[in-house]
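Practice record 12: protein with MV4.
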Amino acid sequence: MFKKILIANRGEIALRIIRTCREMGIKTVAVYSTADRDSLHVRFADEAVCIGPPVSKQSYLSIPSIISAAEVTGADAIHPGYGFLSENAEFSQICADYGIKFIGATADQINSMGDKATAKATMKLAGVPVIPGSEGLLESIEQGKKLSAEMGYPVIIKATAGGGGRGMRIIRSESDFEKAWNDARTEAGAAFGNDGLYLEKFVEEPRHIEIQIVGDQFGKVCHLSERDCSIQRRHQKLVEETPSPIISPELREEMGQAAIKGAQAIGYEGAGTVEFLVDKHGKFYFMEMNTRIQVEHPITEEVTDFDLIKEQIKVAAGVEISGRNYTPKLYAMECRINAEDPANGFRPSPGKITVLHMPGGHGVRVDSHVYTGYTIPPNYDSMIAKLIVSGQSREEVITRMKRALQEFVIEGIKTTIPFHIKLMDDPGFKSGHFTTAFLETFDFSKL
Ligand code: MV4
């Protein structure tokens, strides 16, 4: 087992990783930018190394600074958390070259899923259902128009280097094709330095369902069921839940097996997530694979009773998994509490937290790095807490979530709490029958 893990991240996930390391008897090294001097991950780690100024490129994204910190402190592994360097193939390779275990995917695995058109082709070959569309990249407008006419509109073009909805355009008729193509190409080129596009049939109002998997170094992969992440605004997830209200035990097993097949096709090692779209008829299609731990992993922990960070560390150290799959024993939901003003377009609201009270009680978990007097720096992600609630039914979870949200006091900044309270009372949300388009028609005023 590892003796000392460096955590190449900040905020709640850095704390989350430190907690598990402590339980496993593994020493921890925090790294921090000068903006995070007063952060809890710095205080709770066994050692801490300042790696640069607030701007991420010169601190949390600086490979030389982080490798130096690992060398100086004698860390034998690095946990990248999510975001930052977690899906950076070059970083994963450099760690390997320095003999430091990267707790995440190998460079090859990251590369094979990082290019979306290649990832899709790989999954299709493995027998995972994919959305009908172009074989690989589109070569010309003419080819795109021809294929779209054959499939029928609407279609969607996506950046192969994409993610988060950038470089993506829905096309509803041939007359819109050329402009959409040009816009997507320009946007993708500017955002990713890669303007490759591929085309798919557009699935109207789908659900976003993702399967949690864990693979070991012996080719075994298991799944830990799904998370429903359909409540999103502009490709930012706000609420996640498990089990999904629309997934039957049969569909869960089918999607779980598809995710396992896909992961095995690339010899996947570690914790990963296979994202699917599910259409109105309950048909599912591979969308992308995330080769990292995700923000919303705690809801899976609550319903399966696994510590996913512990599983990541164990498989990275060469421990074999049982290979059993896990289905939810409970219901769980996560609300992302962001320092944003939901009544004003979710505008960021950094600043000092003057008063803080976190909720508690049965079935309530808060993963957060903030405290009374903490100042949220403007340089990073605006998520300041994850409120995770579990219970014996979806109804119980929603009731408990509303209670916990009402107990949550954060003064000095605006947060997404009022939005979540309103959502917990929304008949459409409560019914469980909603799609990824749900928030497009939500009334964010009067919060
Ligand atoms: C789609 C789609 C409909 N049809 N692909 C959004 C982000 C990127 N990962 C893929 N996305 C979508 N791809 C086809 N063929 C609809 C979306 C989409 C979406 C997906 C999941 C969750 C929220 C979404 C919001 C808008 C569009």
